[in-house]
Automatic annotation (TrEMBL), chain A:
<dbReference type="InterPro" id="IPR005133">
    <property type="entry name" value="PhaG_MnhG_YufB"/>
</dbReference>
<feature type="transmembrane region" description="Helical">
    <location>
        <begin position="71"/>
        <end position="89"/>
    </location>
</feature>
<feature type="transmembrane region" description="Helical">
    <location>
        <begin position="40"/>
        <end position="59"/>
    </location>
</feature>
<dbReference type="Pfam" id="PF03334">
    <property type="entry name" value="PhaG_MnhG_YufB"/>
</dbReference>
<protein>
    <submittedName>
        <fullName>Monovalent cation/H+ antiporter subunit G</fullName>
    </submittedName>
</protein>
From TrEMBL, chain D:
<dbReference type="GO" id="GO:0005886">
    <property type="term" value="C:plasma membrane"/>
</dbReference>
<keyword id="KW-1003">Cell membrane</keyword>
<feature type="domain" description="NADH:quinone oxidoreductase/Mrp antiporter transmembrane">
    <location>
        <begin position="127"/>
        <end position="423"/>
    </location>
</feature>
<feature type="transmembrane region" description="Helical">
    <location>
        <begin position="331"/>
        <end position="352"/>
    </location>
</feature>
<feature type="transmembrane region" description="Helical">
    <location>
        <begin position="132"/>
        <end position="150"/>
    </location>
</feature>
Automatic annotation (TrEMBL), chain E:
<protein>
    <submittedName>
        <fullName>Monovalent cation/H+ antiporter subunit F</fullName>
    </submittedName>
</protein>
<keyword id="KW-0472">Membrane</keyword>
<keyword id="KW-0406">Ion transport</keyword>
<feature type="transmembrane region" description="Helical">
    <location>
        <begin position="60"/>
        <end position="83"/>
    </location>
</feature>
<keyword id="KW-0050">Antiport</keyword>
UniProtKB/TrEMBL annotation, chain F:
<dbReference type="InterPro" id="IPR001750">
    <property type="entry name" value="ND/Mrp_TM"/>
</dbReference>
<feature type="transmembrane region" description="Helical">
    <location>
        <begin position="568"/>
        <end position="585"/>
    </location>
</feature>
<dbReference type="GO" id="GO:0005886">
    <property type="term" value="C:plasma membrane"/>
</dbReference>
<dbReference type="InterPro" id="IPR050616">
    <property type="entry name" value="CPA3_Na-H_Antiporter_A"/>
</dbReference>
<feature type="domain" description="NADH:quinone oxidoreductase/Mrp antiporter transmembrane">
    <location>
        <begin position="126"/>
        <end position="403"/>
    </location>
</feature>
Length: 128, 118, 178, 504, 89, 931
């Protein structure tokens, strides 16, 4: 039983660690802000889930204790990560950050930027 | 580890002090915050470093010194109160005096000073 | 669509349930004392917090909601694998894009869940929901709103829009009956 | 266990809280009266405590029933009780003055004032070095808040300097505490004094570094050159009752110097004995001189009074460095005298400024004050007292200072500078007085009149000078007794840590 | 075996943190930096949890939870600041 | 009769004129005169015993530890001076009744005059030298008040200030001298000191003491070179000049010379200092007097000259000279007081004191003229008048001394020269004023004064004549007893006869008279010579000097204190470097030998991140938002370090404070510039870098030194007693709420006060709302992003749950009220951020300052509760209870205390952040106290 758990712990930790690392690699490697955002938002969250699961299993290894409160961190991250990302991308739009050249839907980007700032008057119909 | 810890404390102190010597309120606030970190680490270190000995009874048999930890807690809270006050004071000073220089007025440029002394 | 709670003493039952569970999670115990406290807090806290909550549609189809959650979890895992590959793969080959999706949902809670789901799943991040309604007069009709998303690697815009609308938006409409 | 020891801390605390809560907070009148009554009560308690301690000798109060050196203790000895009485006396004057209308020029005047009293009294009573830090912070934060009372550019400007310097000082204080704790392993002052005697040679210099850092902190509070810069602008810009209360703030630094450098580093401290003296002596003298120069240089009266505070601090610090009973007795007596009279002067400066129209307290020709006889008389009395001229208490203080220096190294430096600065002060005050009251431009007179509470406040503080003179005999005896008690470090250790095996 | 895994993961997280710091320093835009900081917060949760595993002590959990909270709140606050200047309006 | 009353009556008399302020002028004068008259009567009643050589002594304890006892000591010398002070004082009161005009405040004048009289009596009657000094300074003060009586005249103010400065400075020297004297003699009682002359004069400090003592005497007695204040003090009303500056105050210095004659005189040093000063003064005064056009000016300089004469006499170290000195004191007082009063009459009745305009007054006021002529003759030393007698004795004494060896003849020669001048100026006084043609340009027609205004002059002039004719009969006893007091009983043989036969002194007198007349006749050349000399306006010079002093003081002060915080900080840190660095240099080895913990890669990474981010903060401190992000990393790393080194509570607290700080700084940055302009000069940056590095090196070294040293601490007690004595297993928390709960009480008080202070700071602040960010970008449009709003609402219950959890576990596990409070507060602040102030206010309208007060009150009361059980404040209580179904639960007072902490923290944090946030809304903190 414990042996299985140990394997599970190792697996989840490695999985988590890898995703965390990949998320951060994405942060460094990606060409523009918008693409950089994806790594941390998703991979890191999943990576955290992995590590937290590892922790849950680890602390549940000893008899009569069941350590599940790491769930709370997972829930919290799941709730907040999209909001952080949302706020960040809104800021990026507001700051008119350049998207990498071959980004499709440049018009949508422009429209989004216009709406973020004061110029995006709401009387101006968004769909042309 | 002690050497590294001391190095960090010293470096944080130096950075904090340098910022506190700047002429605007905001860098001073930042410097003060940095200095507080250094001071807190210093107080903490006065109880000597301990890797496994969180001071909760029954979790270890070699506890860290709890007293400096309690002192740091007090210092953190007081430091927070003081920083908050200073920050707001900085706002007030900017509002009242029209600039954010710590002296409430811009220092005269150097050449002007020289002229005056002539 | 219901906006007003069924019981005034238990305005947000699912939230209460969540809190009940969380208290037990936090204390890692099923002792009677903790169950008692969990109950008290699960009722007390939502009751206090109810005033700090804008009226939202209530979950009408809990079963569906559970399914939705599981689906999103599954999507997160698959999506992450894809994103990981993209991140580690050649950067030059990425086809990033901005896409806007017309929204049928109107209320904040479902919209938020939709945007969050989109952010957590296949290579997309919700950028904005516009136009914002905070500048609308109370009696003004709601305009068509859009969800702007950024896609890390887009294949086919129409397909993406369709997937999102069917996979996430539609179930949400169903769950909240709005 | 005498609960009375704690009352000087708890009473202002409770008062502050009650003033902030219903039903007191509703009306200014209720806030005022509660504040004044509580302060009067504080004075009574302080005096009773002093009398009790005079009978019983040094007594301590173990908070939470945790005995020293483990718990925090409050130590009531003659020195701390004298300071408590002084603070309460001063505060009653300042609060009465503030209650004449100044208190309504901003929010939370009375609660903050009471908090400040709590901090000051705590600093006087505590027998624990870290607790001293906490109370320092209480009184500092309250002083920051009080300093900006009633607003204005000058206040803001001065407060920025005051706050930043003191925050740096607090950081140094913490570092010093950490060093002392890290070497001595205790925080109780008496226990530290004990531990210093058993200090391994290897730790000697570390303790010295910690002690000298404390010196910086206290020197900053006491405003000793070159750490005095915050003082003139701060005191000169503060609202009158606040400035009056601030008159005791520098004395807290002096008090702390006295506590730490006579108890912890007292005669039992071996190689560390009196380690601050060689610093305090020259810088104290320089402070005195600078203050006197400042009195001459001041362009407005409040700044002049602020510089008078510097002069008094300088004299006190030098005497702290002399380290004998007479010197410490002189420090105590002179502290009481100079604090109260400077407090009175700050209040008076405000009264004069109000009646001089636009010129305020600037030393230029201005319209004539509305009540020249009243204010002039008060001014002359205050000036006589503060300049150390007979017959008010100042001259006794001065004589005590001079006598205490007998036999000290560099006695004649002290004498020369003390007398020279007295002369400069005399010149400065006569110039200020003749400008304020006699250099009249225009026939216009102000409408403002001194209000009864304001007059009471000034007379109250001034009366102290008279009482200090009339009862100088018993009061100097009290000072000497207090100084003897202060110097008796072994006795102190014995009464606080009876298990330590130290015999006086 | 578990010990080696934990150290390996420690290495990964440390590397991740260094990468975050690199992005934080590098920028170039403010949102980039904020993103890097946000990621750093989350990665340090992992670090703390790992410490907990290493020490076999559950006392680290609350710290991790709090980091999650401050990561979120400070990101939101900074973004709001960049968007509106006035974060409480 | 109690001799104390001689002093006490005039002291009480100070109040009489004030009490009679509403009465008529005459009543006021009579009332005022009553006290000194009575005192005079008491004094006279002691005549018998004093003349018989008795010393009346009374003593009361005052400040025994300082050696200051109130002692009244009435001997011959004191008697003489008391007599002069009281008798002339009474005459002055009478005179002033007529002299003062309707506009002058008579009560004030009389009150000051009586104060002065008290002070003078105090000096002469004191039997304790500190007491002498007390009254000595009182004379300076009261004379300041009297000289500046006509404060609206600038020369009165200046003259008063000058007098105060000079005499005040002298007073300080005197104090030093007295303290030395007392220390040498071992007592401050006059009687003891006077007996120890030998001891004092042999003491190594005698020269210093003597110089200080003489500085005191000479400044007061207007001896050269301190003489210049006296003529400028003539801005005072004439009664004052007559009293203070001729008869009494200036004699105080002389009195001290006489008083301490037995203790201090007889040495070469004494002779050189005293007699030469006296001689110089005598000459300078006499010479300058001749050229004064102002009537009072002439009299003032003549006073200086006569004071020099008396000083010279005391300096000769001869008993007979001392007798002569005492005698001249009496004579000078009578004729000079009458002269001043007469001059005052002339001024009063003719409106001028300028001798170039006052001419031929004989025709208008013959009686006054006669009186003045007699007095002037006495001053000139004309036979049959009192001045002649003492001058004869003076000449005789100058001839007797051989102190300058072969040059001893110089003294009598110069004395004669001075006498020549003295005759000349007396002649000028009479001739220029009463004869010499007609008055020029007077505003009034002069006439005789009122009857009683002249009476004092008449009395004194009669005395001049009577003493001149029958000296022994009139003043023999007085002089005898006074002189024997001065000489400590060794009175020499002397005779007060008018005629001593033809001798050298008589010749000198004759030469003086003849020479004086001649000089006056030939005055034209002398005046031309004098006017060719550059004029010296001492008042202006002094005033300029004072201005210069003030200005240099100002310059020096501003040079030291230039108002720059950066300098103050640099000095503070330099002090730190020196004081903390010196012991480090003196240390043998920094390390203490304790084994170090090995470094691992993770910690090294953490440290590297800490160092890099700290460095980055400094480098980018001008880009404020970036700096904030960087310092957040530092904070994060510090928290992780706390976690790593077994301090979870610290990590939690640091983290929760961190959030609030970041929000706070973001809030604040809105109102501050977003960029710091580059301003510091490179040299300053280098200086600051050096200073910062030094501080860093010192602090780092100190921490290293501490960490590597073994150590014992009181902490073991806490670990051992946390559970049994404090009822908790989290020792840190038990320390906070129990062992050192008082610190925590203070700490939350600090937080609460800070919040109040911040509220105070934010009230009435001029609101300014930047319309764009640092780059000039206008703000985004959406105020409350939808996602954020919704999520914040969902987080609130979670956060509350977590904070309750953290709150309750704190006593046993990491956590506690402070952290819980911050979590709650942050959750609420998140609502403010995501929904705005209006939204929150509509749902929760609490005034946070009251929350702070309630929280503090809870903590306070928890502590107080232990009083109910007879325990010290904050004594904790806990117990375990068995409940059915629930099992064992613990109840502890610490929980209540922690609840206080929790509530305070929530209230304070919200008060701080919400007040700041509300700045841009209509709910911004208002000025009125909103409790
Ligand atoms: Na003439
Ligand atoms: Na705001």
């Amino acid at each position: 039983m414990n042996h299985w758990l140990e394997w599970a712990v190792a697996f989840f930790l490695l999985l988590g660690g890898s995703f965390v690392l990949i998320g951060s690699i994405g942060l460094v490697r990606m060409p523009d802000f918008f693409t950089r955002l994806h790594g941390p938002t998703k991979a890191t969250t999943l990576g955290m889930g992995g590590i937290l699961l590892g922790s849950i299993f680890y602390f549940s290894m000893s008899p009569e204790t069941l350590s599940v409160h790491e769930m709370l961190i997972t829930i919290f991250l799941l709730i907040t990560a999209p909001v952080s990302a949302h706020m960040l991308i809104k800021t990026a739009l507001h700051h008119r950050l350049k998207a990498v050249e071959h980004t499709q839907g440049e018009q949508e980007l422009k429209r989004g930027q216009a709406f973020a700032s004061k110029e995006g008057n709401r009387s101006e119909t968004p769909d042309d | 580890m002690e050497t590294l810890f001391a190095l960090c404390i010293g470096f944080l102190t130096a950075c904090g002090v340098f910022l506190m010597l700047r002429g605007r309120t905001f860098p001073v606030v930042v410097g003060l915050t940095m200095l507080s970190y250094a001071v807190n680490l210093f107080i903490f270190a006065s109880g000597r470093l301990n890797l496994k000995g969180a001071v909760v009874l029954g979790t270890s048999d070699n506890y860290a010194d709890p007293l400096p930890q309690a002192l740091v807690l007090t210092a953190i809270v007081i430091g927070f109160a003081m920083t908050a006050f200073l920050v707001i004071l900085a706002i007030r000073a900017r509002a009242d005096l029209g600039n954010d220089h710590v002296d409430g007025s811009m220092p005269a440029p150097r050449h002007a000073k020289r002229e005056r002394t002539k | 669509m219901r906006m007003t709670p069924r019981f005034s003493w238990l305005p947000t039952p699912y939230r209460s349930l969540l809190l009940f569970v969380i208290w037990l999670l936090l204390n890692q115990s099923l002792a009677l004392l903790h169950l008692f406290f969990a109950t008290v807090l699960a009722i007390g806290i939502p009751w206090i917090c109810y005033r700090f909550r804008d009226p939202q549609p209530l979950i009408e189809r809990p079963g569906l909601a559970l399914r939705y959650i599981l689906r999103v979890f599954a999507d997160i895992i698959t999506a992450n694998a894809q994103v990981a590959v993209l991140i580690l793969g050649p950067v030059k080959k990425l086809r990033p894009a901005f896409v806007r999706i017309p929204l049928d949902l109107q209320h904040n809670l479902p919209l938020t869940i939709l945007a969050a789901s989109v952010s957590m799943t296949p290579g997309t991040v919700s950028a904005d929901i516009y136009p914002s309604i905070e500048h609308l007069a109370p009696d003004e009709p709601l305009p068509q709103r859009w969800l702007l998303i950024h896609v890390l690697d887009m294949d086919n815009e129409a397909e993406l829009i369709a997937t999102i609308k069917s996979r996430y938006e539609a179930p949400l409409k169903e769950i909240f009956q709005c | 266990m005498n609960h009375l020891i704690l009352v000087p801390i708890l009473l202002p605390f409770l008062t502050a809280l009650l003033i902030m809560l219903p039903p007191i907070h509703y009306s200014p009148q209720r806030r005022r009266w509660l504040s004044m009554i509580a302060t009067a009560l504080l004075l009574v308690v302080s005096v009773v405590l002093l009398l009790t301690i005079q009978q019983q000798g040094l007594t301590f109060y173990a908070l939470g029933n945790w005995q020293p050196p483990f718990g925090i203790i409050m130590v009531a000895d003659l020195v701390s009780c004298i300071m408590l009485c002084l603070t309460a006396f001063l505060a009653l004057g300042a609060i009465s003055y503030g209650s004449a209308g100044e208190d309504e020029k901003g929010s939370f005047f009375h609660p903050l004032f009471q908090f400040q009293l709590m901090g000051i009294n705590g600093a006087f009573l505590t027998g624990d070095l870290f607790n001293l830090f906490v109370f320092f912070e209480v009184l500092l934060i309250a002083s920051y808040a009080l300093l900006i009372h009633a607003g204005g550019k000058n206040k803001t400007r001065a407060t920025v300097h005051y706050v930043i310097l003191n925050l740096t000082g607090s950081a140094v204080f913490l570092l010093a505490l950490a060093i002392l704790y890290g070497t001595l392993g205790t925080l109780n002052i008496a226990d530290m004094a004990l531990k210093v005697t058993q200090l391994p040679d290897d730790n000697l210099m570390l303790v010295k570094a910690g002690a000298l850092m404390l010196l910086i902190v206290f020197a900053l509070k006491a405003a000793i050159l070159p750490l005095q810069f915050w003082l003139p602008a701060t005191y000169a810009s503060a609202s009158a009752p606040v400035a009056a209360l601030f008159a005791v703030m520098t004395k807290i630094g002096v008090y702390a110097l006295l506590r730490v450098f006579t108890t912890i580093f007292g005669e039992q401290a071996g190689p560390l004995q009196g380690l601050a003296n060689s610093w305090l002596w020259p810088f104290g003298l320089a402070t005195m001189l600078l203050g006197a120069i400042g009195v001459l240089a001041s362009q407005d009266f409040r700044k002049l009074v602020a510089n008078l505070v510097l002069v008094s601090v300088g004299s006190l610090v030098v005497l702290v460095a002399v380290q004998n009973t007479a010197a410490h007795a002189a420090v105590l007596y002179y502290t009481v005298h100079s604090t109260l009279i400077c407090g009175a002067l700050f209040l008076l400066a405000d009264l004069i400024a109000t009646q001089r129209g636009k010129a305020q307290d600037r030393l230029v020709a201005a319209r004539r004050v509305n009540q020249p006889v009243l204010l002039g008389t008060l001014f002359v009395l205050c000036a006589i007292s503060v300049a150390g001229l007979p017959p008010l208490s100042g001259f006794i203080g001065k004589v005590m200072l001079l006598q205490a220096a007998f036999g000290a190294n560099g006695q004649y430096w002290l004498w020369a500078i003390l007398l020279l600065s007295s002369l400069l002060v005399l010149i400065g005050l006569s110039r200020a007085g003749s400008t304020l009251f006699w250099r009249v431009s225009g026939m216009q007179k102000a409408e403002e009149r001194v209000q009864p509470l304001q007059l009471f406040a000034v007379l109250w503080l001034l009366s102290a000078s008279l009482l200090l003179m009339v009862f100088a005999g018993p009061l100097t005896e009290l000072s000497f007794a207090a100084a003897r008690q202060l110097a008796d470090v072994l006795g102190t250790i014995q009464s606080i840590l009876p298990g330590s095996g130290v015999l006086p | 075996m578990l010990a080696q895994v934990i150290f390996l993961v420690f290495g990964m997280i440390s590397l991740a943190l260094l990468l975050n710091l690199w992005r934080l320093m590098r920028g170039p835009s403010l949102p980039d930096r904020i993103l890097a900081l946000d990621t750093m917060y989350i990665n340090s949760i992992a670090l703390i949890i790992l410490y907990g595993l290493l020490m076999g002590s559950p006392l680290y959990f609350e710290a991790a939870l709090l980091i999650a909270m401050i990561g979120f709140v400070s990101t939101v606050a900074v973004c709001k600041f960049l968007l509106r200047g006035d974060i409480i309006e | 009769m109690n001799v104390l009353w001689i002093l006490l009556l005039p002291m009480l008399g100070t109040l009489v004129p004030l009490l009679l302020a509403k009465q008529s002028r005459s009543r006021n004068a009579w009332g005022t005169a009553a006290a000194p008259a009575l005192a005079l009567a008491i004094l006279l009643s002691t005549t018998q015993s004093v003349f018989s050589g008795e010393v009346l002594l009374q003593q009361w304890q005052w400040i025994p530890l300082l050696g200051l006892d109130l002692t009244i000591r009435l001997d011959g010398l004191a008697y003489l001076f008391s007599l002069l002070i009281l008798a002339i004082g009474l005459l002055i009161i009478l005179y002033a009744r007529y002299y003062l005009s309707e506009q002058d405040s008579m009560p004030r004048f009389y009150s000051f005059l009586m104060l002065f009289m008290t002070a003078m009596l105090g000096i002469v009657l004191s039997g304790n030298i500190l007491q002498i000094w007390l009254f000595w300074e009182l004379t300076s003060i009261s004379s300041f008040l009297l000289i500046s009586f006509w404060w609206h005249k600038s020369e009165a103010r200046r003259g008063a200030r000058m007098a105060l400065t000079i005499t005040g400075g002298g007073g300080l020297c005197l104090l030093a001298a007295f303290l030395l004297l007392g220390n040498i003699a071992g007592s401050y009682q006059l009687a003891d000191i006077l007996e120890q002359g030998a001891l004092i004069q042999q003491h190594s400090l005698y020269p210093l003491l003597l110089v200080l003592f003489l500085l005191g005497c000479f400044t007061k007695s207007a001896q050269f070179p301190f003489h210049f204040w006296l003529p400028n003090a003539m801005a005072a009303p004439t009664p004052v000049s007559a009293y203070l500056h001729s008869a009494t105050m200036v004699k105080a210095g002389i009195f001290l010379l006489a008083r301490f004659y037995p203790a201090l005189s007889g040495t070469e040093l004494w002779f050189l200092l005293v007699s030469l000063t006296g001689l110089t003064t005598l000459l300078v005064g006499a010479y300058l007097a001749l050229f004064k056009h102002d009537l009072k000016g002439l009299l003032a300089y003549s006073t200086i000259s006569h004071l020099g004469l008396i000083t010279l006499l005391f300096g000769l170290n001869a008993p007979l000279a001392a007798v002569a000195g005492v005698f001249h004191i009496i004579n000078h007082a009578t004729f000079k007081a009458s002269l001043f009063m007469a001059a005052g009459i002339i001024d009063h009745e003719s409106g001028s004191r300028d001798m170039r305009r006052l001419n031929g007054l004989w025709q208008f006021m013959p009686i006054t003229a006669t009186l003045m002529m007699v007095a002037a003759a006495a001053m000139a030393g004309v036979p049959l008048l009192n001045g002649f007698l003492s001058k004869e004795m003076f000449f005789a004494e100058t001839l007797q001394q051989h102190l300058l060896g072969a040059l001893s003849w110089i003294i009598p020669l110069l004395a004669t020269v001075a006498a020549v001048f003295s005759v000349a100026y007396s002649l000028r006084l009479i001739h220029d004023v009463f004869f010499n043609g007609q008055p020029k340009g007077l505003t009034k027609t002069p006439h005789e004064p009122p009857r009683y205004m002249r009476l004092p002059v008449e009395v004194l002039v009669v005395l001049c004549i009577l003493v001149g004719i029958a000296p022994a009969m009139l003043v023999g006893g007085l002089l005898n007893s006074a002189a024997s007091a001065v000489l400590a009983g060794n009175l020499p043989e002397y005779s007060l006869a008018i005629w001593h036969g033809f001798n050298l002194p008589l010749l000198m007198s004759a030469i003086a008279l003849a020479g004086g007349v001649l000089m006056y006749v030939k005055r034209k050349q002398l005046f031309d010579f004098q006017s060719a000399l550059p004029g010296v306006d001492t008042l202006n010079i002094f005033e300029q000097l004072m201005k210069q002093l003030t200005r240099s003081a100002e310059k020096l002060y501003n040079w030291i204190d230039n108002g720059s915080l950066q300098r103050y900080m640099a000095l503070l840190l330099t002090a730190f470097v020196i004081l903390a660095g010196l012991p480090l240099i003196q240390m043998d080895a920094l390390g203490g030998g304790r084994a170090e913990i090995p470094i691992d890669a993770v910690n090294a990474t953490g440290a590297a991140m800490l160092l890099i981010s700290a460095f980055a903060t400094v480098v980018w401190h001008r880009k404020r938002v970036v700096a904030l992000l960087m310092i957040s990393v530092v904070g994060l790393m510090v928290s992780i370090a706390f976690t790593r080194f077994s301090a979870p509570d610290l990590a939690l607290t640091q983290l929760s404070v961190e959030v609030v700080t970041i929000i706070l700084l973001m809030l604040a940055l809105f109102f501050l510039p977003h960029k710091t302009p580059k301003q510091s000069e490179p040299s300053k940056v280098v200086r600051d870098l050096g200073l910062a590095s030094l501080v860093g090196i010192i602090v780092g070294s100190l921490s290293y030194a501490i960490m590597t040293r073994p150590f014992t601490t009181i902490s073991d007690f806490f670990i051992a007693n946390a559970k049994t004595g404090g009822g908790g297993t989290n020792v840190v928390n038990v320390i906070l709420v129990d062992f050192r709960g008082f610190d925590t009480l203070g700490e939350i008080a600090v937080l609460g006060i800070a919040a109040l202070g911040i509220f105070k700071l934010l009230t009435r602040i001029p609101v300014f709302k930047p319309s764009s960010d640092g780059e000039g970008r206008p703000w985004a449009r959406e105020r409350h992003p939808l996602l954020l709003a919704t999520v914040a609402q969902s987080i609130l219950p979670l956060a509350l749950m977590v904070s309750i959890y953290i709150f309750f576990r704190g006593h046993n596990l990491p956590g506690g009220g402070f952290i819980a409070g911050l979590i709650t507060a942050v959750a609420i602040i998140l609502l403010y951020i995501s929904q705005g102030v209006d939204w929150v206010k509509a749902r929760m309208n609490i005034e946070y300052q009251r929350v702070v007060a309630v929280g503090l009150l809870i903590a306070f009361m928890t502590g107080l509760a232990s009083w109910l059980f007879g325990r010290p404040y904050l004594t904790s209580w806990f117990d375990y209870f068995q409940l059915p179904l629930f099992g064992e639960i613990e109840l502890a007072s610490a929980i209540a205390f922690d609840l206080g902490v929790y509530v305070t923290v929530v209230g304070a944090t919200l008060l701080i952040l919400a007040s700041l946030g509300k700045m841009t809304t209509s709910y911004r903190p208002t000025h009125k106290e909103q409790l």
